[in-house]
Amino acid sequence: LVDLARRHGLMLIEDGAYAFLAAQAPPPLAALAPEATLYVSSLSKSVATGLRVGSVSAPPAWIPKLERAIRATTWNTPATL
Fold this sequence. Notes:
81 residues; flat; alpha+beta; single chain; 32% helix; three-stranded mixed sheet
């Protein structure tokens, strides 16, 4: 998957919200290809479903575009990313 993403200039989006449930989880794709992976996690899925807290880890070059997308698609404007 990482090889295909690199070869074709694709972005991988990895949802790691439930990774903590696996006893022997493989390394995240973000560890193998940090330049091509958005790693999304969520506190609400693992702790409290009513709470809406999450995080995104991305290559630095993608941060401005992600910030604009988040601000354009949510009613809460994040103070910082």
